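Database export, one record per block. Field names are fixed; values are copied verbatim from the stored entry.
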Amino acid sequence: MPEKLPEKLENALKLLWKKSRFTSYFYQSCEFINSEEVPTVALHESGMRPAFYYNKSFINTLTVKNINALLVHELLHVIFRHDHRSFSNMNPYLQNLAQDMVVNSYIKDNISSFFSKSGYNESILELPESLPLVPDYFYRETGIKDPGWEDVYKWLKNRDKTKLSEFTEEVSKLFKDLMPDTSKEKKKEKDPGIPLFKTETKSKNNDSTGLVFTDSNGKPVPTGSHIFSETSVSKRLETHSKKMTAFASSDPGASEDRIFNLITSIMGSPDKTDSSKWEKKIKSIVDASAHSSEIEFSYKRFNRRYFAQEIYAAGKIMKDKQRVITAVDVSASVTSNPGELEKAFGAVESLLGRYRVELLCLDESLFIPGTENGIITKTRDLNKKFFYKKGDWKKIKTGSGGTTLFAPLFNEYLKNRNETVIVITDGYIHDINRLKPYKNTLWLISPGGKQDFKPPFGKYSFIDTKEV
């Protein structure tokens, strides 16, 4: 009979069920194993099945919100495809430090909206104190807004070369190697221990089977233990998360779950390839529908070049750039994935030399964005205009992930207008059957959005997230 879960862990799982069906589905499919060999927690497998190992004494020191944060932390390592094993020519301590920094910073930056639904803002996550985060000066020095662990690793390793060995030695002191216990006393016990700590599963690049963060006193820091598992284990966990994604998609509440939108977006991201053709395709569609009229010829302003030869020819008149409207669904999964947002606006920015781009945002309502402290905010005066400048997409703040209504745009704002409209969305539009057709519409759809979504009018293209 399975051992009863600690009360705090049980309460954390119950809270997840209420606030995030996907996360709950994932952990319902896992086996929970209490083990003193794991200093904190670890997401691994047992008998080819996903398993969440936990140290009962450690769990009892945490709050329910702390436990929820660690459950999300471990899941994100799988979603971000973090392989904790030491890669060749890489320092294992720096590598694992970079991976934890990226996950913890992601949770911290989005902690108030992870399981957000319309009308609900209270966070159910709370990161334990003293966990490693991506330092502020990393962003200042590199300009990278959405770093992968490789970006952070490279930055850490490229610090002052004269002190690199000293620095890496100090980093290594943050960890404790998890060694297999081969003592005779251990072998006599009935419990053979967790398979992942057996000698045969040692990493080829390190004598230990995993790492755990420790404080200055050598005590484990309240975060997950990193297990050096085989590549096949990581692949099976990733495959399992995809299965749970497909399973959770049938739940009516999944579309309002921000972490679900994030995960489907990442899982659906395509392989890397050249995407310049996609941006040209979007530009050509807009050019065909907008017909920019920057230059016109008129006899009212004759061509002086031929006037001396008594030839009266029409001259050029520069006209105002034609406008293109870009409407962004800020509650969509695309805004929770900076890579997709950057790609979508890469196509928009290719239009700036020829068009003025008017930016609108939609969630439960339509609003004209304003700026406050460098972040795009809501202003309800629809008579105001916000003209997009290169890089403004970085200021767009992710919405709640709740209801999205497009009727205010198509049925009211665009009434008696004829500009081309670019709509960036994930396809989860609650009032789609009430929209008045608007011919000059180009839909840019998140590849991690609604799989069967087909716009009711206009042209459409899925956002190409491929990179060189």
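Remark 1: Confidence is low (pLDDT under 50) at residues 180-208, 269-275.
Remark 2: The longest helix spans residues 92-109.
End of record.
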